[in-house]
Design brief:
The complex is a heterodimer. The longest helix of chain A has 14 residues. In chain A, helix 3 packs across helix 4. Chain A has a domain of 174 residues: P-loop containing nucleotide triphosphate hydrolases (Rossmann fold). In chain A, the strands form 2 sheets. Chain A has a 6-stranded mixed beta sheet with strand order 6-7-8-3-9-10, sandwiched between helices. A 4-stranded antiparallel beta sheet of chain A has the order 2-1-4-5. By secondary structure, chain A is an alpha/beta fold. In chain B, helix 1 runs parallel beside helix 3 and helix 2 runs antiparallel to helix 3. Chain B is an all-alpha fold. Chain B contains 6 helices and no strands. The chains are: A alpha/beta, B mainly alpha. Chains A and B meet through helix 8 and helix 10 of A and helix 3 of B.
């Protein structure tokens, strides 16, 4: 993990102002105001139901797919409102990719999984596609393991490999931000270590936002950590500060295991 | 007993481990306090047997150091402590080193006392018991501040170290005059001077304890000139 120097101010990639998300009039999370740093890793931690995943989904307009969900406030990507009139959510989601808790490869070959987003994006040049499939798999640290069986069915891969394939698929369309919702919670420690190393590597090119139940994971991979509790953003700080001297008592109680 | 965070851990076994560690540290501190007190009484009342008894405390103190180190290692490995718990464990690891050094200095005092008690008294001891009492009170206050997680009291301990330094220079000057008066005083005067120096060193270690308590409570490092920021 490359912790930012205390005096360096990273560029803001996502600007969130007073964001609230409601599920049919019941508030799920908010109001949240935060700046997410470009080419750094930001982690969201908090107990189940604290709103961290809801908030993550609001960052690439995924909540719109949930019936009865509405939101107020503002999210800007490089200064442009992603919820602005005339903004196509599909374009937003191409720039802000997502990886989910359960790996969900398509029942297709390994190569086709990674090529999928490129093809529906209209790319036809097979040489270009092959090149970007390789690059995606390399970025996801999977290339060496699958290069000799690219035409095998993706469902034959191990859980950890499937999750890295999903990351490769998300990276192949070259997003600017990658949102990860508990990407390693279903994996064994070695597969988890692979994912964490991968997060560390891609953060030099991508802005990564990760939701995790595993506090040690946040401490290991993230430059910044946000603690959510009961729909509220309680504390947001550099990871090294948050895990050694948090300023809020509720953060202290949660991370030291003094809750409930 | 109050901890840095008064709330208890959800995991009771972890809570127990932290409590036990705190108790061991206090036990070690109490042994050391007793040793310092006994060593000076042995000097003033010329009780060589008491000095020898105090020397035997060192074995138990060293054993406690090993036990505390082991407990800290176990907690670090098994619990991955963070925030105030992490500050507590890392400070416990350092605290124990200073406490052990204080114990060694206590042994040194007793050794000099045994040598001095074999000779006729050089002079009535006035400043030395006062200095020893001040050091002892500082140690007691530092341990209290640790138990109560009281950064203000810990700061007060640090300030008190000036008194110790003042006592030391005064005792040193006085002993110098005795040595200049009569070379036959030199053997006893240098031993007394060593005892004063040991007490002065203990004051420095106690100051370290105070700084650690401030860090443990507030997360602020006040060593090496960082004191002004508070």
């Amino acid at each position: 993990m490359s912790a930012p120097a205390p005096n360096s101010t990273p560029v803001t990639k996502l600007t969130v102002r007073d964001l609230c998300v409601y599920y049919s009039e019941k508030k799920g999370v908010g109001p949240v105001t935060m700046d997410i740093a470009e080419k750094h890793v930001t982690a969201f931690i908090g107990p189940s139901g604290c709103g961290k995943s809801t908030f993550l989904r609001a960052l690439n307009r995924m909540n719109e797919l949930i019936p009865g969900c509405r939101m107020t406030g503002e999210v800007k990507l490089d200064g442009d409102a992603i919820y602005g009139a005339g903004v196509d959510p599909v374009t937003v989601r191409r720039r802000i990719g997502m990886v989910f808790q359960r790996s969900n490869p398509f029942p297709k070959s390994i190569a086709e999984n990674v090529a999928y987003g490129l093809r529906i994006g209209g790319l036809k040049d097979e040489r270009e596609i092959a090149m970007r499939v390789e690059r995606g798999l390399q970025h996801a640290a999977l290339w060496d393991e699958v290069k000799d069986r690219l035409d095998d069915n993706a469902l034959g891969l191990s859980g950890g490999q499937q999750q890295r394939l999903c990351i490769a698929r998300a990276l192949a369309v070259e997003p600017e931000v990658l949102l990860m919702d508990e990407p390693a919670s279903a994996l064994d420690p070695i597969a988890t270590a692979h994912i964490e190393e991968l997060i560390n590597e891609i953060s030099s090119d991508y802005t990564v936002v990760i939701v995790t139940h595993n506090m040690q994971q946040a401490a290991r991979v993230a430059d910044y950590t946000a603690f959510f509790y009961m729909g509220e953003l309680v504390e947001f700080d550099r990871t090294d500060v948050l895990f050694t001297k948090p300023s809020n008592q509720r953060t202290e109680d949660y991370i030291t295991g003094r809750f409930g | 007993m109050r901890t840095v965070t008064s709330r208890e851990h959800t995991n009771r076994e972890y809570e127990q481990e932290l409590r036990r560690l705190r108790e061991q540290l206090l036990l070690m501190g109490a042994k050391i306090e007793e040793m310092i007190r006994g060593s000076i009484r042995a000097l003033v009342e010329r009780e060589t047997a008491l000095a020898e008894q105090m020397i035997s405390f060192d074995k138990r103190i060293n054993q406690l150091e090993l036990e505390i180190d082991e407990q800290c290692m176990q907690i670090l490995a098994r619990r991955q402590p963070v925030a105030s718990d992490l500050r507590f464990i890392t400070m416990a690891l350092k605290l124990v080193t200073d406490l052990e050094r204080i114990g060694d200095l206590g042994v040194n005092i007793c050794e000099r006392v045994v040598e001095l008690n074999a000779e006729p008294p050089l002079k009535p001891y006035v400043d030395m018991p006062n200095m020893a009492r001040e050091v002892q009170e500082m140690l007691h206050e530092a341990l209290d501040a640790f138990v109560a997680a009281d950064a203000d009291r810990a700061q007060h301990v640090i300030v008190r170290d000036r008194n110790i330094d003042a006592y030391y220079s005064q005792i040193f000057r006085e002993l110098l005059t005795y040595m200049m008066e009569d070379p036959r005083n030199i053997f006893r005067a240098t031993r007394l001077q060593s005892i004063a120096k040991y007490l002065e060193r203990i004051g420095d270690h106690v100051t370290n304890l105070g700084e650690m308590v401030v860090f443990m409570v507030k997360g602020k490092d006040i060593r090496h000139g960082g004191r002004q920021v508070i």
